[in-house]
Write a structure and sequence with these properties.
534 residues, alpha+beta, 8-stranded antiparallel sheet, 7-stranded mixed sheet, globular, binds guanosine-5',3'-tetraphosphate
Length: 534
């Protein structure tokens, strides 16, 4: 293997690729906008994406899809700040929550979790957090909306620790909240950063800093506020985990920051700390062992998302890939491992703030979108290395909603099978079949219910096939890890259903979560998993 060039090394070292996760409305969009504002990528906050695309209901899905360009661009953003090249991966919320949301986390090197200070940990955060934990990537917490009445700070931290099972380490500490919000205390420098009204963030706002031991502090905090702060810090110093970079890197300790994204407060402080605490692109596992971007000279990438173009006239797709090592140059020819042949990567696209642009080059850590004539699948590896290694596959995430699919016109079986298979290949849905009944009926599983509408709409519009979806009551799916298992002898609960995937691997569906435990108890040695292997 030849030496990695300094150019590549330096470019990769500058890269920070992270996903931003939150429950809807916690302030993810606002925080992203503010990052871009500080990065100078946009002149005005509020132009990242229109509210229409940020949150839309099922009914206007089609409209949204027509503007697919916009929804694509909002999924990856690149900007620079302080010498770093930052890639933000957005994880959609609301009804458009889908497997893609989980897969995005597979492409990130760390995650920023935005929490609403008045609400604490919410359902969607919990789901996404599980994937971060599985990957052991660093997780940073931004507790937002401190300009509104917040929960008690210790309670908030307790909530994160209990709900998510991760230790926390506050880098700064809030002084009051809502109308009484004074700012944050920076623990290491022992300084108070004062909150100032930025008129809802329309002004950048200057953050005044006052040392806690300086006489000036009496002019900015009342005796009561100061006393409370001192008490809390004393308690915190005694009780909270100390900052430990190694634990942060392993995803076992989350540095916590407080702020108010809407008013710009705490955003730049967060960004500065985050960029030094998070890591540059990490090594990834392949079938030839770990591939380290700091050592591997050749280009390599894996596909984590495939977006179909809704334009009927051109049934083209864009495959999003995460570059893991080396340098990408437009038009280069690379080996597609799963396809077993060389492919030319044409029309590479990258998102720069709110614009989509054609790019000439990119480096390990970057995300690019490549025109896909229908040859790529989620998890595929592309590389210019002679070694032809393949990155570890992306797990299949557990769908939570299931429906039986019936064709209205049974004569169109061929189109139906083709359409549903292609949509499944893009990773929007998962398809299963009845186990051992000989019936050919298809069961579809999705992570977010909007995907059912997407499936119905796309089959009708792109494949001319009308379907009826009959909802099933199952909410939990488990893959069977044991290789040798006699499915006929397996005894479950009355709400359990045996199904199989397209590779004939058996799976179990359950209505109730407790039935999973019972089934495990009834079948000694049975191993079930929430994630499937592709
Ligand atoms: P999301 O992407 O996580 O779903 O949340 P988003 O940023 O869209 O924010 C949700 C709402 O919370 C928005 O208000 C936004 O302005 C507000 N918000 C975000 N950060 C803060 C903050 O630090 N303090 C306060 N007080 N509010 C915040 P909205 O009324 O739903 O939308 P808009 O009309 O203000 O745009």
């Amino acid at each position: 293997m030849s030496e990695i060039t300094n150019e590549i090394k330096n470019e990769i070292k500058k890269r920070r690729t992270f996903a931003i996760i939150s429950h809807p409305d916690a302030g993810k969009t606002t925080l992203t906008e503010k990052f871009l504002l500080y990065g100078g990528a946009i002149n005005q906050a509020g132009s990242v994406k229109g509210k229409a695309t940020a949150r839309h209901a099922v009914s206007d899905w089609m409209e949204i899809e027509k503007e697919r360009g916009i929804s694509v661009t909002s999924s990856v953003l690149q900007f620079s700040y302080g010498g770093y090249c930052i890639n933000i991966l957005d994880t959609p919320g609301h009804q458009d929550f889908s497997e893609d949301t989980y897969r995005t986390l597979m492409a990130a090197d760390s995650a920023v979790m935005v929490i609403d200070a008045s609400k604490g940990v919410e359902a969607q955060t919990r789901k996404l957090f599980k994937v971060c934990v599985m990957r052991h990537i660093p997780i940073f917490t931004f507790i937002n909306k401190m300009d509104r009445e917040a929960m008690d700070t210790f309670e908030l931290l307790d909530d994160i620790e209990k709900e998510l099972g991760i230790a926390t380490c506050p880098v700064n500490w809030p002084i009051g909240s809502g109308k009484a919000f004074k700012g944050v205390f920076e623990r290491e420098r022992e300084e108070v950063e004062l909150f100032s009204d930025t008129m809802k963030g329309t002004r950048m706002g200057e953050v005044r800093k006052v040392g806690i031991h300086s006489p000036e502090i009496d002019n900015v905090l009342t005796a009561e506020e100061r006393e409370k702060l001192e008490e809390e810090i004393e308690l915190l110093d005694g009780a909270a985990a100390e900052f430990d970079q190694e634990l942060v890197s392993k995803g076992e300790l989350s540095p916590v920051f407080f702020g108010s994204a809407l008013t710009n407060f705490g955003v730049e402080t967060f960004l500065k700390h985050f960029l030094t605490m998070t890591s540059s692109p990490l090594p990834r596992m392949s079938d030839r062992g770990e591939i380290d971007p700091m050592k591997e000279t050749d280009f390599s990438a894996f596909v984590f998302k495939i977006q179909a173009n809704m334009n009927k006239a051109h049934r083209d797709r864009i495959a999003f890939m995460r570059i893991c090592s080396g340098k990408f140059e437009a038009g280069m020819s690379v080996y597609h491992v799963q396809g077993g042949k060389d492919v030319r990567l044409s029309q590479p696209q990258q998102m720069m703030a709110s614009e989509r642009k054609i790019i000439e080059q990119a480096y390990g850590g970057d995300i690019i979108g490549i025109f896909d004539p229908g040859i790529f699948s989620i998890g595929d590896t592309l590389t210019s290395s002679k070694d032809k290694f393949a990155y570890e596959g992306i797990p299949t995430f557990a769908p939570e909603h299931f429906a039986r699919v019936r064709q209205v016109d049974t004569m169109k079986r061929k189109q139906f099978v083709k359409g549903i298979n292609q949509i499944a290949q893009e990773g929007a849905i998962q398809i299963f079949q009845e186990y051992n009944t000989g019936m050919e009926e298809i069961i579809v599983g999705v992570v977010g219910v909007l995907q059912f509408d997407v499936l119905k709409y796309r089959l009708e519009n792109e494949y001319n096939v009308e379907i009826i979806l009959e909802m099933l009551p199952y909410e939990h799916i488990r893959w069977i890890e044991n290789k040798e298992i006699d499915m006929d002898k397996l005894t479950g609960t009355s709400d359990m259903k045996k199904i199989k995937d397209l590779k004939d691997r058996p799976l179990l569906l359950f209505i109730h979560e407790w039935s999973i435990r019972m089934t495990l108890e009834r079948n000694k040695g049975l191993e079930l998993s929430e994630f499937g292997r592709s």
